[in-house]
Design brief:
With 75 residues, the protein is an alpha+beta fold. It contains 3 helices and 4 strands; from the N terminus they run αααββββ.
């Protein structure tokens, strides 16, 4: 094993989750409260205590209210 995944595995950290970054961004109304607030990964729900990678914008409306928000994925 080599590269960033091996380095993070040796450091005792979980390997990166590229699948989270490639998961389609859902409608804003389908996000959890934590993901909507940017505190959790929108794809897997893991808490992003050390920051996440910008993954796009979840769009949605509730009547006249714009619910769109930026979402973040696992680093």
């Amino acid at each position: 094993m080599s590269g960033p995944a091996a380095a993070s595995a040796r450091a005792g950290q979980a390997p990166p989750r590229p699948a989270c970054r490639t998961t389609p961004v859902p409608d804003a109304r389908q996000l959890t409260t934590e993901a909507y607030a940017g505190r959790a990964c929108y794809a897997c729900g893991q808490h992003l205590e050390h920051g996440g990678v910008p993954a796009g914008r979840a769009v949605g409306q509730d009547g006249a209210h714009d619910l769109s928000t930026e979402v973040y994925a696992c680093p």
